C-alpha cells in the first residue's frame, strides 16, 4: 500500500440541499401517474362493454400503449433526465418496462379473444383468426406483438450474454416497427381513441411526444452537436503496454455541456471503425479546449485505438451519465477506483470541491494507470491518495481496512468505479459501514442493453 498524504485544504463550499436524482425520479413518476389517470378517465368516458373480459382487454391494451410510450421516453437519452438519473438506471427501467409492456399486451390479446369468444360462441383460436380477418388493424397488432416477443426473448439476460451488441441492437430496432404497428391498430380499432376529440388529441399528443423525444435525443441532438463541435483526434499517447490515452479537440468546446465523470459513445470515423460505438469516460475534466479518454486496449476494437491517426474525425454521442459532482450531498468525498475504472475518478478528483480521499485498488504498482497524474493532482488539491495493491483475494478493502483508511467515511459522498466484482464488494462494504444510500454513487458505463 502506498499513501500520499494530503496538504492542508480550505473549507469547501456547502453541498446542494436538493437531490437532483430525487427530483428527476419524482418527475418521471408524476408524468407516468398523471397519464395513467388520464387513460382511466378517457376509458371511463368512452363507456364500458357488457362483457367483463372485453372491458379488461381494452383497459390492458390502453395501459400497454401507455407503457410502450413511457418505455420510449426512458431511452430517448434526454439530457435533463440522463444527468440526474444516469443512462444505466434509465436503461434498466426501460428493460423492466419492456417486459411489463409484453405481459400487458399478451393479457390484452387473451382478454379480448376470450371475451369476444364468449359472446360469439367461437373457440379462442377461431375467434382470434376471425378478429384478424374482419377487424381493421388487428392483424398489424398481432405482428407487433410477435415482434415484441422476439425482442423480449433476445433481451433476456441468458440470450443477451451470448449475443454481440451490434446483433442485439439491430434486432432491438424492430421495437420501433412494433410501436408504429401498434399505434395504427389503436387508431383503427381503439374505441377509447375515437370516443371523443379529447381522447384523440390525448393519444396523438402522447405518441407524438414519445417519438419526438426519441428522435430529438438520439438523432437530432447528436447530429447537431457533432456538426457544431467537429471533434478530431490530436494525439494518441500510450500510458503503458495495455492502456492508451486519446486526446481530441474541436470547435466551441467551452459550450459542450460535459462534466467530469461523464462518458460519450465514441465512433472513430475510419474505414474499419466508423460503425462501432464504444462507451469511454472522460479521463480529464473538460476545460473547453480539449477532451481526453483513456482506454484499456483489451479487445480487437479497443486495441485498434493505438493505430488511430491524428486528424481522424470523431462522432461522439453524449455526454451521458449521472456520475458527477451534481449529486454531491456532503462537503467531502471518498473516491474508490479499480483498474482502468480510475479514468472518471481522475476527472472527478480534478473537479470536486472540498477534501477528497482517493483509494485506488490494483494488482500491482505497474497496473496503476495515470498514477503520476493522480499523485500530482492530489498534492495540488490537498487530497489523500492511497494506492492499495495485491491479489483480489483476500479483499484488502473490506470494512475494517476501508474504515482504517477513511475513518469519517460515513460523513462523505462516495464515488465508486471499477470492475463489477470490485464495485459490488465495495458497495457491500459501504452498507456495512453505515454510509447512507444517498451518499453512494456508482454507475455502469456501457451501451444500452
Describe, in plain words, how this protein is organized in 3D.
By secondary structure, the protein is α/β, with parallel strands linked by helices. Helix content is 51%, strand content 15%. The chain has 16 helices and twelve strands. The chain has helices at residues 20-46, 52-74, 79-85, 87-120, 124-134, 138-155, 157-160, 165-172, 174-189, 191-194, 197-229, 300-303, 342-351, 371-381, 399-405, 420-432; strands spanning 2-4, 232-238, 243-249, 263-268, 278-281, 291-296, 314-320, 333-338, 356-362, 384-389, 413-417, 440-442. Strands 1-10-9-8-11-12 form a six-stranded mixed beta sheet, with helices on both faces. A three-stranded antiparallel beta sheet has the order 2-3-6, with no helix packed on it. The protein has a three-stranded antiparallel beta sheet with strand order 5-4-7. Helix 4 (87-120) packs across helix 6. The protein is elongated, with a radius of gyration of 26 Å. It starts with a strand and ends in a 7-residue tail after the last strand. The mean pLDDT is 89.
Percent strand equals 5-15%
**Rg, alpha carbons:** 26 Å
Helix content: 40-55%
Number of strands: 12
Quickly give the structural class: alpha/beta
Q: What is the 3D shape? A: elongated
Strand order, sheet with most strands: 1-10-9-8-11-12
Give the overall average pLDDT.
89
Number of helices: 16
Note the quaternary state here. Answer: single chain
Between the first and last Cα atoms, what is the distance in angstroms? 37 Å
Uncertain segments are none
Amino acid at each position: 500500500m502506498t499513501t500520499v498524504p494530503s496538504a492542508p485544504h480550505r473549507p469547501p463550499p456547502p453541498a446542494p440541499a436538493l437531490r437532483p436524482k430525487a427530483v428527476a425520479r419524482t418527475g418521471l413518476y408524476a408524468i407516468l401517474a398523471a397519464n395513467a389517470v388520464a387513460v382511466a378517465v378517457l376509458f371511463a368516458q368512452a363507456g364500458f362493454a357488457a362483457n367483463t373480459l372485453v372491458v379488461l382487454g381494452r383497459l390492458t391494451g390502453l395501459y400497454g400503449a401507455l407503457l410502450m410510450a413511457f418505455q420510449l421516453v426512458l431511452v430517448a437519452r434526454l439530457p435533463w433526465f440522463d444527468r440526474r438519473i444516469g443512462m444505466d438506471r434509465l436503461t434498466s427501467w426501460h428493460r423492466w418496462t419492456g417486459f411489463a409492456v409484453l405481459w400487458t399486451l399478451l393479457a390484452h390479446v387473451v382478454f379480448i379473444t376470450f371475451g369476444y369468444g364468449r359472446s360469439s360462441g367461437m373457440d379462442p383460436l377461431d375467434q382470434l383468426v376471425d378478429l384478424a380477418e374482419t377487424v381493421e388493424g388487428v392483424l398489424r397488432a398481432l405482428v407487433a406483438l410477435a415482434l415484441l416477443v422476439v425482442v423480449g426473448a433476445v433481451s433476456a439476460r441468458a440470450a443477451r450474454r451470448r449475443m454481440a451488441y451490434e446483433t442485439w441492437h439491430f434486432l432491438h430496432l424492430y421495437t420501433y416497427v412494433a410501436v408504429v404497428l401498434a399505434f395504427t391498430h389503436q387508431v383503427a380499432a381503439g374505441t377509447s381513441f375515437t370516443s371523443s376529440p379529447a381522447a384523440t388529441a390525448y393519444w396523438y399528443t402522447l405518441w407524438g411526444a414519445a417519438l419526438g423525444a426519441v428522435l430529438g435525443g438520439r438523432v437530432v441532438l447528436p447530429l447537431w452537436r457533432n456538426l457544431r463541435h467537429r471533434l478530431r483526434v490530436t494525439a494518441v499517447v500510450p500510458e503503458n503496454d495495455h492502456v492508451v490515452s486519446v486526446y481530441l479537440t474541436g470547435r466551441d468546446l467551452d459550450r459542450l455541456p460535459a462534466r467530469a465523470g461523464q462518458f460519450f459513445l465514441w465512433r472513430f470515423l475510419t474505414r474499419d471503425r466508423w460503425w462501432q460505438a464504444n462507451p469511454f469516460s472522460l479521463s480529464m475534466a473538460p476545460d473547453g479546449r480539449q477532451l481526453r479518454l483513456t482506454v484499456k486496449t483489451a479487445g480487437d476494437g479497443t486495441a485498434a485505438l493505438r493505430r488511430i491517426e491524428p486528424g481522424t474525425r470523431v462522432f461522439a454521442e453524449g455526454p451521458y451519465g449521472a456520475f458527477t459532482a451534481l449529486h454531491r450531498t456532503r462537503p467531502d468525498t471518498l473516491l474508490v477506483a479499480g483498474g482502468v475504472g480510475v479514468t472518471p475518478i481522475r476527472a472527478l478528483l480534478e473537479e470536486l470541491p472540498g477534501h477528497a480521499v482517493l483509494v485506488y485498488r490494483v494488482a500491482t504498482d505497474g497496473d496503476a494507470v495515470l498514477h503520476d497524474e493522480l499523485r500530482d493532482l492530489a498534492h495540488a488539491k490537498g487530497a489523500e491518495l492511497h494506492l492499495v495493491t495485491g491479489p483480489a483475494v483476500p479483499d484488502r478493502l473490506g470494512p475494517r481496512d476501508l474504515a482504517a483508511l477513511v475513518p469519517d467515511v460515513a460523513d462523505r459522498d462516495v464515488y465508486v468505479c471499477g470492475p463489477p466484482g470490485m464495485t459490488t464488494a465495495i458497495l457491500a462494504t459501504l452498507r456495512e459501514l453505515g454510509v447512507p444510500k444517498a451518499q453512494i454513487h456508482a454507475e455502469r458505463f456501457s451501451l444500452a442493453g
